[in-house]
Model the fold of this input.
Amino acid sequence: QKARLSTARHVEAEGDLHGQLDALEQLVNAYETKQREHEEVTRKLEAEHKSYCATLHEYLKKEQQEKAASKGDVAVLKAQVRELEKEKAELVAAAVAERDAAAQALLSVPQNPHVSPTRSPTSPTHTV
Done:
């Protein structure tokens, strides 16, 4: 009877151990599943991060190129402004010289004492 009781306890203990072993296997399987899910999420995040960084790099590169082009445009515009200012100064100088020459020409015309300065020699009231 002791042998039967011992065997029964042994069978019961063995059943408990098998139950615990099954529970451990389920825990290990659940852990491995979670581990695979974690690795997959990590891979996806790394791929998204890499894609984001590449996109950001391209954006910054394009922005830098546009900024450089804009600086070039500004330099071209400044050169054009300088050129226009130079032309303006030349035109003003030419106009002043022309005005001065016309004034000088008027001053060098001999004055007729019989002609009123406000009347032209061709006017009908002209008297000689």
About this structure: The mean pLDDT is 86.
